[in-house]
Specification:
- The chain is globular and about 55 Å long.
- The longest helix has 11 residues.
- It contains two helices and 17 strands.
- The protein is mainly beta.
- It has a 16-stranded antiparallel β-barrel.
- β4 and β5 form a beta hairpin.
């Protein structure tokens, strides 16, 4: 309750500078609707009405300094099929300084790890930043949750050059609370071309963007009280996105190594994603395919790194082996009713080597942005 009182107190205050321009703005998102989950072979079914919201406060302290604070809100103590936020949680914050050199910025705070150009398209609670509600399996593997982005606390930079954008992030670990007993931090370095190719197809303009990012973070031996991945992770992601008036599509290949310091296990894990979106009037139709492929995926329960976990829709207490491929199929239809108000509909199917664990979901939420 005290967090709610603090939140609404902050929202009630409006600061103004001498020229009567507000320096504090409030934005956010909310969704409410119904979800349905079916694991048919094991007779597990869930039907539930759900709600979630995000509130973001932005303060422009000067021409170069801005700070953002974002809260995730949900029903506290709710048995959530979709795992939205419970109660009030501080989901993100940053203090950002625009340097004025090469259109560069420096940020401190709780931020999304810039691993790939699609990192900023991840969902967090009610903040849906792509045509899909659920995140793809590649990012879910790193965040351990399909409705939470891969994020941590640290220092980030972003610089825009003529040849593209370079982003860096030095951070605590795969859990923001990681104390870094190894005296090291996680690091991510990413590059995006921006509009590598600007052209026309059928007299329609299009852009092609390419990107590559490196990742290293060592959370081996992290405190059990955190949700850190117990492995020394290195990764390389290569991605591409094509955008035009008539269609959008893209994807990535992410090559990861989850070193668990066990010479008898195989640490390599690859993840892949491809998607497409097309508008038909006020309806946006999209489809996405993603897969987690450990190098050892024979399903015998041995020989695979202990650093990975099952992040699909299936009941992880029943499916305990991780040396398997997990595949996610997503189809979405977003009906735009009016500006900032829409209906998000999504069908998801997660499949496994053992069909008993295959799980389907149907989601339908009314969504708004403010």
């Amino acid at each position: 309750m005290k967090y709610l009182l603090l939140l609404f107190t902050i929202m009630a205050v409006t600061f103004e500078v001498s020229n009567a321009q507000p320096i504090l703005s409030i934005s956010g998102s909310a969704l409410s609707g119904i979800s349905s989950y079916d694991q048919a072979a094991l007779l597990e079914k869930n039907r539930q009405f759900e709600s979630a919201a995000n509130v973001k406060l932005t303060a422009d302290l000067s021409e170069r300094v801005v700070t953002n604070i974002e809260f995730g809100l949900g029903v506290e103590g709710f048995e959530r099929s979709s795992n939205f936020a419970s109660g009030v949680s501080l989901s993100a914050y940053d203090i950002t300084y625009q340097t004025g050199y090469y259109n560069s910025s420096i940020s401190l705070g709780a931020l999304t790890v810039p691993y790939g150009q699609f990192a900023g398209s991840q969902t967090y609670n009610s903040s849906i930043n792509s045509p899909f509600i659920y995140n793809d399996l590649g990012y879910s593997l790193l965040s351990r949750d399909s409705l939470v982005d891969f994020a941590s606390i640290g220092l980030a930079t972003s610089s825009n050059f003529d040849f593209g954008t370079v982003k860096t992030f030095i951070f605590n670990g795969t859990d923001a609370r990681a104390a870094n007993e190894d005296e090291g931090f996680g690091i991510s370095i990413g590059y995006e071309t921006g509009s590598l190719i600007n052209g026309k197809v059928y007299d329609k303009p299009f852009n092609l963007n390419l990107g590559a990012s490196l990742l290293n973070v060592n959370d081996k031996g992290a405190s059990p009280s955190t949700n850190a991945i117990q492995a020394d992770i290195t990764g390389l992601i290569l991605d591409a996105k094509f955008t035009a008036d008539f269609i959008e599509f893209g994807g990535y290949v992410s090559m990861l190594n989850f070193d668990d310091s066990n010479s008898s296990t195989i640490d390599e894990v690859n993840t892949y994603m491809i998607y497409t979106s097309k508008s038909f009037g006020n309806v946006l139709l999209s489809a996405r395919y993603s897969i987690i492929t450990p190098r050892d995926y024979n399903g015998d329960g041995t020989g695979v790194t202990s650093g990975i976990s099952n992040v699909g829709l299936t009941n992880s207490s029943l499916l305990t082996i991780t040396d398997i491929e997990t595949t996610r199929y997503q189809a979405s239809a977003i009906i735009n009713i009016e500006e900032n108000f829409s209906i998000h509909n999504e069908a998801i199917l997660d499949t496994y080597d053992d069909v008993r664990y295959d799980t389907a979901a149907i989601l339908s939420y009314v969504s708004l942005n403010f």
